[in-house]
Amino acid sequence: MILPEQAFLPAALVVARVISLPEPSKICVDLGHKSIASEGELVGRVTFLNAPELKAVGQSEEHLVLEAGEGHSYNVGDVLYGIPNHVCPTVALYERAYTIEGGATTGEWLTVSRDRVISV
Fold first, then answer.
1. Residue 87: what are its φ and ψ, rounded to 5°?
2. Which fold, 14-93?
3. Tens digit of each residue's pLDDT (9 = 90 or more) over 59-103
4. CA–CA dist 80, 88 (Å, integer)
5. What Rg value do the Cα atoms of the chain yield, rounded?
6. pLDDT of 15-40, one tens digit each?
7. pLDDT digits (tens, 9 = 90+) for 39-48
8. 8, 59, 112, 118: least CB-packed within 10 angstroms?
């Protein structure tokens, strides 16, 4: 969080799932360059609400490898809720976003910035 003294709540989250356990101290999630803005330092691209201790150590188009520490309790299939460091380019990667209120899905918004045309 950039301004921890201000009581803002995250306005957008990305959902990631643990897809493999490549080493005893690492986990791999489905949150690659195609899923979250890849600018800036790798360790600061995403913070997980339900796993703030995880630190990114590698990223590819489809995957993000995270240091979880020896003896971690993560399993394939676990869900993580990530706060992107830069939400603007992250949102533009998705066709739609779901709105959540009171823990329930209440609708969806189309990402109009995805509907663009190159003309020459």
1. -75, -30
2. Lyase, Ornithine Decarboxylase; Chain A, domain 1 (2.40.37)
3. 999 999 999 999 999 999 999 999 999 998 999 899 999 999 988
4. 20
5. 16
6. 999 999 999 999 999 999 999 999 88
7. 889 999 999 9
8. 118
DSSP string, the chain: ---TTS-PPPS--EEEEEEEEEETTEEEES--TTTS---S-GGGSEEETT-TT-EEEEE-SS-EEEE--TT----TT-EEEEEESSHHHHHTT-SEEEEEETTEEEEEEE-GGG------
Answer yes or no: are the C-beta atoms of 32 and 61 closer than 8 Å.
yes
Tokens 């150590």 found at = 57
Structure tokens at 106: 């209440």
